[in-house]
């Protein structure tokens, strides 16, 4: 029986080192070899026995794995950090596959973070057009008026970006301490999105926790704990991303 052939860019993406779109660019840029031979044609197909390398480094043909982590504060959402700070990868001590975070959470933001070595899956979830909802619980300084908070739905301009929320709800108000807790839902998350948006509205953020990513929540996971995503959760996330593509 002949070996099954797959498109070269798909095999590179499945290794977890990049998305399929970027893998295509790697091929066009002359960074990919198959069995030692430079390949620059996107239609090229390879088998499981072929050796594929990017920048002369063989790709790992690992089984795809998917995890959900309850990220504590003061961890970098990265594979490493030049300043020597602890990263989220340090928390997944018994995971041997080369995984990486899907998107980012700020250093001082806690909560749900997904990690994988499946480049296609990561790209699917991170692309803004797929509109995966993420829910955050946010504690802010001051007690904002409704009309001020409503500006989040229309968009708040900051440093050339338009920062928006798609939903929000006031969870509680502490008149004595002059603070309030909000539940905010985003589709996309620009750098420090919620912090910048609320600071522009005059209500600096004191604490943020992401509690839900699409159909996946933290459940009983404590800060620093993690678990594999279930097959049902993986399928649900894929279906959400496919369903929500903008027309």
From TrEMBL:
Keywords: Isomerase, RNA-binding. GO terms for molecular function: RNA binding; rRNA pseudouridine synthase activity. This is Pseudouridine synthase. CDD domains: PseudoU_synth_RsuA_like, S4. It comes from Candidatus Pseudogracilibacillus intestinigallinarum. The keyword Chaperone does not apply. GO terms for biological process: enzyme-directed rRNA pseudouridine synthesis. It holds the Pfam family S4. The keyword RNA-binding applies. PANTHER family: PSEUDOURIDINE SYNTHASE FAMILY PROTEIN-RELATED, RNA-BINDING S4 DOMAIN-CONTAINING PROTEIN. InterPro entries: PsdUridine_s_RsuA/RluB/E/F_cat, PsdUridine_synth_cat_dom_sf, PsdUridine_synth_RsuA/RluA, PsdUridine_synth_RsuA/RluB/E/F, PsdUridine_synth_RsuA/RluB_CS, RsuA_PseudoU_synthase, S4_RNA-bd, S4_RNA-bd_sf. Its EC number is 5.4.99.-. Residues 6-63 form the RNA-binding S4 domain. PROSITE patterns: PSI_RSU (PS01149), S4 (PS50889). Belongs to the pseudouridine synthase RsuA family.
